[in-house]
Amino acid sequence: MQVHYLEFVTPDVDIVCATLSELHGVTFGTGDPALGNARTATLAGGGKIGVRAPMHESESPIVRPYVLVDDIDAAVTSAEAAGGQVALAPMELPGHGKCAIFFQGGIQHGLWQV
Predict the structure, then answer these.
(1) Among 6, 7, 60, 66, which lies 20 to 30 A Cα-Cα from 44?
(2) Which SUPFAM superfamilies match (predicted)?
């Protein structure tokens, strides 16, 4: 299992970016429209960390890991068969691959295919 993208959703984007930069020595770029205007930084293992503001008023702050999968459609089918509830069906993120989100056990699980 490899976390490909670690997403932080917060109303305090600049503060969180500054803290993560200080703690982990990463450098964040400007907002990426394909990732909900997340400011991203590349991690040593090749993954990314992204910090963005909520995209609508009902979206709560959260930290959501997206695990790398070979076949996102098959992974979503497996998650559903295991009792997961799909919150975001596989969708293309131009230049980044595909992502999906499912809920299970009170946790939001992200999936990512490059």
Answers:
(1) 60
(2) Glyoxalase/Bleomycin resistance protein/Dihydroxybiphenyl dioxygenase (SSF54593)
**Do 29 and 56 belong to one domain?**
yes
Query: What's residue 44's pLDDT?
Result: 86
- Give CA angle at 55 (61, 111), nearest 5°: 70
Same domain (yes/no): 28, 56: yes
Q: Tell whether the model's pLDDT for residue 108 goes beyond 90.
A: yes
pLDDT in tens, 74-95: 999 999 999 999 999 999 999 9
How far from 62 is each of 50, 72, 79, 88, 108, CA to CA, in Å? 12, 22, 21, 16, 9
Range of the domain at 73: 69-114
My answer on whether 52 and 96 are in the same domain is no
pLDDT tens digits, 9-37: 999 999 999 999 999 999 999 999 999 99
